[in-house]
Amino acid sequence: MNGRTRVVVVGAGFGGLATAKGLEDAPVDVTIVDRHNFHTFQPLLYQVATSGLNPADVAYPVRGIFQRQANVRFRRAGVTAVDWDAGTLALSQGEDIPFDRLVVSAGATVNDFGIPGVAEHGFPLYVLPDAVRLRNHILGRFEAADADPSVVDDGGLTFVVVGGGPTGVEVAGALAELIEKVLDRDFRGSRVDVRRAHVVLVEMVDSLLPPFHPSSQHHARTTLMRRGVEVRTGTSVAEVTGTRVRLEGGDEIPCHTLVWAAGVKAVPLAAALDAPTGPGGRVSVEPDLRLPGHPEAFVIGDMAAIDDGEGGLLPGVAQVAMQGGHHVADLITREAVGEGDVHEPFRYRDKGSMATIGRRAAVAELPGGLRLSGTPAWISWLGLHLLYLMGFRNRVSVFVNWAWNYLTWDRGARLILGSGEGDTSLPGEDEDDEAQTSA
Amino acid sequence: MNGRTRVVVVGAGFGGLATAKGLEDAPVDVTIVDRHNFHTFQPLLYQVATSGLNPADVAYPVRGIFQRQANVRFRRAGVTAVDWDAGTLALSQGEDIPFDRLVVSAGATVNDFGIPGVAEHGFPLYVLPDAVRLRNHILGRFEAADADPSVVDDGGLTFVVVGGGPTGVEVAGALAELIEKVLDRDFRGSRVDVRRAHVVLVEMVDSLLPPFHPSSQHHARTTLMRRGVEVRTGTSVAEVTGTRVRLEGGDEIPCHTLVWAAGVKAVPLAAALDAPTGPGGRVSVEPDLRLPGHPEAFVIGDMAAIDDGEGGLLPGVAQVAMQGGHHVADLITREAVGEGDVHEPFRYRDKGSMATIGRRAAVAELPGGLRLSGTPAWISWLGLHLLYLMGFRNRVSVFVNWAWNYLTWDRGARLILGSGEGDTSLPGEDEDDEAQTSA
């Protein structure tokens, strides 16, 4: 040891960034490890998936974020194991890096709940490549229907979104808008009748946005239905193929696109931590967010199963991750300056929840029981997301895109590009593109 | 036939778009076929490759371009063959579409001139996926050097650009700037010394920018050298591996990145046209741009070998393609309104040439012998490219990016994303990523 505490942060999401920023003035050396060289603003991924924003609008290079914070290093790598005795983290390139404090904020991965076909055919929406892949697939379905209009009868333009939480509601609403306002004009005069496209939102419990107040739930449901989304609550998916979704009870929906927003589970790394896990493989933590049995390590964000004090767990949202990061940074700082062991418990302050349904439609619930819906909620949502977005350039770009989309009903971002697309990519082949080289 | 002339345009590049737009008021039905659903503004590809712009900034959805032109349809497809007797074009999905007039403007592909290793290891820069792939590779080299600094000795941070035309000069200049001004700050304090990165520009003849005036050539060379680029003219590449570039004469450069801007040749479709071909497989055309022996077909843009009236061929630049498109649209229109066969020859008006070298450095040559260099040329270049860029949204986005880059020396677009990148992509693996799925 060189005298300064070596802090290794796994994951450059909301939790990891908050931890590193919170350590700016601490006598520590921070290394952030992530397999992507950028931070992703996850709350706007659904807009990338529906051609409202470009991938770069919701991503920011990690090295850029910390150019002016001298005690932070970045390593682009995956993490394969932790050696608790040696106090080292094994990186995917075969190197071991030492730590005095470890903060694991590696997020989650899609949870298919063991339902047959979801892993193969479902489109998750958790990381940026997911969003690009879904965008290409959605646009590809319309191009494929233009090449062969008969696929529409087979569900070629039916989009089933599973999960009635904020992500599912946002995807369903944005998709309905993309189809009605943008693609309908794009394909005017072509051989495909875009108005035959169909969005179905499936939720297991009886209402959308379960944690919200019933009036917000009702607003979300009626707004979606008015915009043409078929809302099916109280049912769940039994099996999925590339062209069919079978619901519990036997109903079968011909459908070539299944968006899976039904839930997440901890990434495999959670198992490598050798720790007790709760629902969805999330890691059980002490009240101060330490890993049981390993006081030098903390787990925060979507990976952690944090008691909400009411018998449940805190939700996997940005605020929980960010506040967890601030808390952990505070404990590490105090220990680094010589306060000894600090075990102050983490206290989450709920700043409210929001979900947007589409143009001038959203619901927002603030602490103290204040509820907004419709245009006021939508405006608040826009402002808040611009405010939290990383980097001036991204803010301007998102603002320009949003203003453009709002005023013209256009979506400039409807490109079928990336996610392995090479020269040879063509309609109906975009899944195969993933395995193609472009050389 | 339904009475209206059926025009099929292959390729949505500068030539194809100019043709379709030129037919706006003609009594014809136009179908544009392209394997990408977007038009690419090729002159700015090098900025995507060097993280100055995002892919979406230089791409525009074809369906969006023609939303308001009722006589244009788009088909996202590749073209596999032409049946001259039946008058049909075979699309990659197995469908044949009929035409009365065929305009082939399918562009070019990289020409490796048979040099061993170029096809496998060289990075071309002709279509948008090329630019994304090169960007990811360049950024990946620095991440790999951070993981294992010893690769720098092996050429891990050496970038050889082959071809001293505008593309090669622009890539070399922008790359030197990216390294010196952006990556040097990104990697400050890391294990890799970015100042050891090295850009080499190789050109076969004795001067850069061969068609330009010697004073412009000199300006380009001295500016590049002042910015740290090693300029090697009068030499050519003999062989390439993944880690070495061997020059004619025996010199060997350790190098993990070879940008191939040495030339293009016609796409394989040219062979399917059953036509005489000239240098680089370009299709020889009649003076009115018709395909010899097939007066119902025209070939324009980079695919066509068009006599420049001085014993040479017109260059493969946007202006030649656009003017060719206007010419062909004019002939088709006049024939469609009953003027009979029109064989007016194509006359190219040279509007000048430009190449940018970097920040406040460019050369421009206008008709009449007017030459600009340095800041005035750079400002002209910026304005002209903004003007020609498709779509208000793209213009604003490019302008914001450029202003941001200029004022902050930052490049927000330095994301390692797309081109097959999935969850598991890591430093040093970006070539392999192409074959990975992200699910």
From TrEMBL, chains A, B:
Keywords: FAD, Flavoprotein, NAD, Oxidoreductase, Transit peptide
Domain FAD/NAD(P)-binding: 6-325
SUPFAM superfamilies, alphabetized: FAD/NAD(P)-binding domain
Bias kind Acidic residues: ranges: 428-439
Keyword Transit peptide: yes
Pfam family, one: Pyr_redox_2
EC number: 1.6.5.9
Ranges where the record places region Disordered: 420-439
Residue ranges constituting the External alternative NADH-ubiquinone oxidoreductase-like C-terminal domain according to the UniProt record: 351-407
Molecular function as annotated in GO: NADH dehydrogenase (quinone) (non-electrogenic) activity
Enzyme class: oxidoreductase
InterPro entries in the cross-refs: FAD/NAD-bd_sf, FAD/NAD-binding_dom, NDH-2, NDH2-like_C
Catalytic activity: a quinone + NADH + H(+) = a quinol + NAD(+)
Family note: Belongs to the NADH dehydrogenase family.
Protein's recorded name: NADH:ubiquinone reductase (non-electrogenic)
Organism field: Iamia majanohamensis
